[in-house]
Each structure stands twice: as structure tokens, then as C-alpha cells.
Amino acid sequence: MRTPAEAKAQARTLRRALAASGHTVSHAEALELVAHQNGARDWNTLNARLMKEATGHVPLHLNGAVRGRYLGQPFTGRIVSLSQKGDGYAIAIQLDQPVDTVQFASFSNLRRRINGSIGRNGRSAARTSDGFPQLIVERDGGRT
Length: 144
Known about the structure:
Number of strands: 5
Order of helices and strands: HHHEEEEE
Structural class: alpha+beta
Mean pLDDT: 87
Distance between the termini: 26 Å
């Protein structure tokens, strides 16, 4: 299975097969069963993974839970601003916990909000000195 459309088709097939054997399930329940069969926690997680694999696009939305790395530091947070910018997005993320953007022991710089630009793949074009994207954003399927 490579796309959300294929997963939905599999759910319809599963639903018909179960109905034929006397087990009635809703379409939503069939989607959840397909997600579990494919190693995902739920349909939303599977759908996001398939969308990203099929299109290279990380599906993001305002107030959506996200996780990622900023200047090499892991974070979780919520999108507070999102707008189309060229072939990507201008994004602002309110962090759940402040992130220290300085890697020196002698001082720190705690950030509570990140503003940046990312491509449709969730990665910034700007790089750190070691070559990694300054900002990497993914949907956080474990949070609502």
C-alpha cells in the first residue's frame, strides 16, 4: 500500500468481507483496522505517513501538534501561524517546553517559539554548520 487512496480501498474491501461474514463495521472502524494491520496506531497516523511517502509533503494545519528538531534540539509544540510561501510554508510554532538553542555550557538561549520557513517535506533549506536542516517539522500523531 502506497497511498491513502489504496488504504481506503483496502478498508472498503475489508468492510465488505466482514459484512459478508455477518460482522458489520463502520467505514471509520475499517480504516482503523487497516491502520493497525499496517503497523500504525490509528488511521490519522497511517494517513499522514502515506501522504508523506506518496507526495513528500508533510500535512500541516493551524493549531496542529508537531514535533521535530530546531538547531539540532528536539521539540514538541503547536502551529500558531502557517502560510504558503513559495513551494513551502512560513511557520510559527509555540513550543511545549523551551528549547536551548546554544550548545555551550557557559550560557544558554531558551526559545519558546520558533519562526521559520520549511519546504513541503517539512525541512528548512537553511542548514546548520554541520549540514543538517535548521528546522525539521513533523506531525505529532501522538497528541491531539
